[in-house]
Amino acid sequence: MSQKIAFQGEPGAYSHEACREARPDMEPLPCRTFEDAIEAVRSGEADLAMLPVENSTYGRVADIHSMLPQSGLHIIDEAFVRVRIALMALPGTQLADITHAMSHTVLLGQCKTFLKDNGLQRITGADTAGSAKHVAEEGNPKIAALAAELAGEIYGLDVLARDIEDNKHNTTRFLIMSREADRTRRGANGMITSFVFQVRNIPAALYKAMGGFATNGVNMTKLESYMVDGSFTATQFYADIQGHPDDANVKLALDELGYFTTELEILGVYPAAKPR
């Protein structure tokens, strides 16, 4: 029986594309929500989960960072998918026939120039692949979908225009999650360690907590804060650093961080992807 990798969305979503690119030997398992994808791994229905965490144009994916510490899963890898957007419609339809384009609101916002130049009205859909599925099932030749070409393949739509996004560098970063942690050194581009922490309620705690990374020469590639349980005083931080916890300088930096935190949890140790 083939292993499965869970993702949020309909078949043909960009997360589905990430699964095919990063784990082509695994069977993609579509899930309704991020929580469902996480639960599929926790329950054993799936072996891995593919979760988007940030986009180069729109920033972090809402709620994902707060889900990670509570998921019980571990980050074992990362993947980057270049977001290429195609306009797709019913077979035989011409671009001149289209009056409306349907997609997730974020994707609609990434194709403003194309939509304006072609006089297309926007229709907000639940998600990208779901919009492609809707266009295929609705049968209205005046409505097209904005999605990955993979969605067009799945739902039998023709590509009328491709690579129509405003930002040609648009890329989404995904984390691959597993029930079991893997801290072995692997990959050809070094290691990334991701963790969350809460600082102690003392003056300049965050400044002092970060000092150990600077003095030990550890490169921090990401530091983000978010509220915990809706509290304005309880702030949790998510961080990515280059290196492995067993590296001497990383170990010293994490030890120093521990002096100024009330909670510190390593979410994963994994190889840095080549697109970095």
TrEMBL record:
The keyword Lyase applies. It is an enzyme of class 4 (lyase). It comes from the Bacteria. Keywords: Amino-acid biosynthesis, Aromatic amino acid biosynthesis, Lyase, Phenylalanine biosynthesis. Residues 194-271 form the ACT domain. Pathway: Amino-acid biosynthesis; L-phenylalanine biosynthesis; phenylpyruvate from prephenate: step 1/1. This is prephenate dehydratase. It comes from Arenibacterium halophilum. The lineage of its organism: Bacteria, Pseudomonadati, Pseudomonadota, Alphaproteobacteria, Rhodobacterales.
